[in-house]
Amino acid sequence: LNGKLDEAVDEMEKALGFDAQSTFLATELAGLYSEKGNIQKAILICEKTLAVNSRDVDARLLLANLYLNSRNYQDALREYLKVTELEPRNPEALLYTGILYGEAKDYDKAVSTFRMLLTIDPDHLMGNYYLAKTLSEVQQYITAEAIYKKTLALKSGFEPAALELGRLLEKQEKNDQAAETYRAYININPHSVNVRLKLADLLLKLKKPEEAEKELRETLTWGKGSREIAYRLGLFYLESDRYEKAAEIIRELLNTNPDD
């Protein structure tokens, strides 16, 4: 794969040599350098391209993404905002602008940006998800709950939305609804270790140890060999004074990891 990328870079460099003013070829080359992991080289090419044509949306969007991947969030936000000035309905730029506002805890701007994105595309999966997440941060729980549900209606197998909705319902003490949310997701995706663990924790909180044990057992089956899950199940048995069961789990764990 690296050999093919090197070959593609060489070919693109040659093409750019014949047409040095082509911002399209320069942006393509920057993208190839990014794939190779040479982010600084890719950034340099984008900056040179934008010095020739500051209104090149593709180059500016790529530059923003490169800054984001480099965790240079301030410069990334600046470039995404410039993209939205050039192309106000650009969904990628709006999404990441909203995310960066949220990370900076500028929640009002984050919410307004996500709402702008959803005006353009009401069914934008990540736009809905991040809007719900931001609204949850500012304690607009009812609206956030509705938007998480819409997100899951758009993609029922979207695990982050199921987990966040469950957490939000638990935060509001709507524990039965949270359990229903986790179970509904498990019906679609039975091998989801994260959601099964959340359900098991909730069932323990609700003092339903038999149901919690079932979920922990199922989780261990799907996450076979997982040290953390085995410890949690063993701890559950110890706290329930079921020492033989706890010893059985520990023996199984040692069979898998004899040096533990």
Give your account of this protein's structure:
The chain contains 15 helices and no strands. With 260 residues, the protein is mainly α.
Would you kindly provide a brief summary of this structure?
This protein has 260 residues and is mainly α. It has helices at 2-18, 23-36, 39-52, 57-69, 73-86, 91-103, 107-120, 125-137, 141-154, 159-171, 175-188, 193-205, 209-222, 227-239, 243-256.
Q: Main beta sheet: strand number and arrangement?
A: none
Give the overall form. Answer: flat
- Fraction of residues in helix: over 70%
Order of helices and strands: HHHHHHHHHHHHHHH
Write the layout of secondary structure elements.
Blueprint: H1 2-18, H2 23-36, H3 39-52, H4 57-69, H5 73-86, H6 91-103, H7 107-120, H8 125-137, H9 141-154, H10 159-171, H11 175-188, H12 193-205, H13 209-222, H14 227-239, H15 243-256
Helix pairs in contact: 1-2, 2-3, 2-4, 3-4, 4-5, 5-6, 6-7, 6-8, 7-8, 8-9, 9-10, 10-11, 10-12, 11-12, 12-13, 13-14, 14-15
